[in-house]
Give the backbone structure.
Amino acid sequence: MRALLLSLIAMLLLAAGPARADLRITRDHGGYVEEYKAKYERIRKRGERVIIDGICNSACTMVFGIVPLSKICVTPRASLGFHQAYYDKAYTFGIKVTTAAGTSDLMTYYTPAIKSWIARHGGLTPEMKKVKNGPDLWRIADPCPEDF
């Protein structure tokens, strides 16, 4: 009897289909580009939404080229940070060594609005350039509805 009950519960859970979850970005300073590509591809394939509710720097910003813009929104706490790509500092003795090929790859993931903002602010450099709440950010992504 107990096995039958557990089987019925399992079937009901499976029949309900996959649950959708939102990714809420609150403090993401970036990391390895390939890891972010894979992460955002999974999110795109599952049709999940991305809520940027804090820091989204470096490789985190690739979300705009992988997840549909209609699935991304920003809260008043959101900020985006952009810089040139650089090699893993573990292989460069802790020195930040930029890579033109990596930066070019990164730029292919940016929307026209992001590319325009970057161009207006002197292009990508080794230093972080930030977009914070306001008209510049809203040209890049829609504000989240009030209930987020």
Observations:
- The first strand starts at residue 23 and ends at 28.
